[in-house]
Amino acid sequence: MNNKNYNKTKTFPKGFLWGGAVAANQLEGAYMEDGKKPSVADVMPNGVFGGPQYDAEYYPTHDGIDFYHRYKGDIQLFAEMGFKVFRTSIAWSRVFPTGEEDQPNEKALKYYDDMFRELRKANIEVMITISHYEMPLAGVEKYGGWDNRKWIELYLKFCEVIFKRYKGIVKYWLTFNEIGNNLNKPMQWVTAGIRTDLDHLEQRCFQGSHHQFVASALATKMLKEIDPDAKIGSVIEYKTIYPITCDPQDSLVVQRLKQLSFLFPDVQVRGEYPRFIWEYFAEKGITLEYEEEDFDILRKNTVDFLSFTYYRSRIASKDYIESVQKDTKGTDVERKDNKLFRGDKKILDLGKTNPYLEVTPSGWSIDPDGLYLALEDLYQRYNKPLFIVENGLGMVDQLVDGTVQDDYRIDYLAKHILAMKKAVCNGVELLGYTTWAPIDLISEGTGQVSKRYGFIYVDRNDIGEGTLERYKKKSFYWYKKVIASNGEDLA
Question: Which tens digit of pLDDT belongs to each residue from 396-406?
Fold first, then answer.
């Protein structure tokens, strides 16, 4: 793909939802204000890859970028770009600070009332992720993670409150963010409240996933009863995966990895576990605990659409799998095997990256064709509308004279939008596209601000210094033009 071809495909359908995506724990701040209590994200000073710590000097999520107090100005900036939709989350530990309260925190609901009102005044639709890496910490400390079935009850109580409160206001709901990351160490802490130092981690993660599947299906049923006009989906992380060679054994490895990644949408979109997973459980010695009605619940309450995040592709080979299989020490196998799912360039394929692709300074592949393949694969497999809810480029931006000349971000996004156009013109039903993120925020992975994704620069550094003032980057004006032309003007 090259810049000269940006404008040579047909337009997106009328009503296509352009916008941006964030998560409450990564930008709101005010982590103990108006009755809120800590979430699992609030004890990670260095993000997911640093793990939970209780004695750090500085926790970036506690202040975020102060969206809690500055949302009106930020929404005005989103409106200036022409956003059609804004994806965020409702912080669970604001509404139910421990997860167990009998009544919700009214101050928290009032905050979201006001924020959603601002969005609707700006003609921006609201898309809400119900659980986006922010389980109430007190509940996790009492019950453990989602491997405890108690969380189904607590989650549905949360859902009932927000579904009723925001009936007719929120038109698009997402049950869980990147639910498949339950299998990716060390993501289990934020996705499912499961500590990664526990025994039988894989068993716990699949058990937690089952409980989330049931909770998602019951939430889908509940929403249809409360607000039949609303739409509900879930979120998977998707990385197109290639074999490193044409060796059939490499392709077999890729097939198994794809099967495991398809497990999550298979259950939520098709309503049943794929056949291969039961053999996988037998091989791994995993025993799934369930109630008889669970499978009927899953079958009858599938999601309306499938949304996914896409940043990069990955590669795999038989050589790495074989090196893991030769190690018979359980803990080490588990560690390495879970890292395989991350797509880390230093892990996959014995340290090699895809030689046909550019990579970012942080080592992530840049692969817009991989996004096209993802759209084709997912639509052909599920025949349900798709929604890209995260896609973006994280870079260390330089603020000069009140702006950022981020042509690299424009180039990345333009090529991915062109890949989307190609899929749409080939018959893929794509509802919308929300970039990650429209404004600089806290990294979930590292707890940093310096790896920036936004169209809006926030004056904040990695140790909490800065004015928090907002500045429009060059990409701000570019994305405004993209939206105004419904994806036609990408230059």
Answer: 999 999 999 99
Q: Alpha-carbon torsion 437, 340, 134, 50, what sign?
A: negative
Cα separation of 133 and 92, whole Å? 10
**What φ, ψ does residue 117 adopt, rounded to 5°?**
-60, -40
Domain locations in the chain? Answer: 3-239+304-311+367-375+384-484
Residue 174 in 3-state DSSP? strand
DSSP per-residue codes, 463-491? TS-S---EEE-HHHHHHHHHHHTTT----
User: In one letter, which amino acid is 394?
Assistant: G
Q: Which of 28, 125, 202, 390 is catalytic?
A: 390
Active site residue 390: yes
pLDDT band at 1 (very low <50, low <70, confident <90, very high): very low
CA trace torsion 209, 300, 307, 277 (10° rounding): 40
Reported as a single tens digit per residue, the pLDDT across 428-454 is 999 999 999 999 999 999 999 999 999
Distances (CA, A) of 195 to 48, 88, 397: 12, 25, 34
Concatenated DSSP letters for 50-88?
Answer: G---SS-S--HHHHTT-HHHHHHHHHHHHHHHT-SEEEE
The span from the CA of 395 to the CA of 452, in Å, is 5
Please report the pLDDT score of residue 395 as a whole number. 95
Segment 129-136 shows an average pLDDT of: 97
pLDDT exceeds cutoff 90 at 7: no
Global pTM value = 0.92
- For residues 307 and 233, the answer to whether their CB atoms sit within 8 Å is yes
- Region 214-243 average pLDDT: 97
pLDDT in tens, 68-91: 999 999 999 999 999 999 999 999
CATH superfamily placement of domain 3-239+304-311+367-375+384-484:
Glycosidases (3.20.20.80)
Kindly tell me the burial class for residue 5, based on how many C-beta atoms sit within 10 Å of its own C-beta (0-12, 13-18, 19 or more): exposed
Instruction: For residue 309, give the nearest of 254, 256, 235, 377 by alpha carbon.
Output: 235
Q: How far is CA 176 from CA 107, 235, 292, in A?
A: 24, 6, 23
The whole-angstrom separation of Cα 51 and Cα 44 is 6
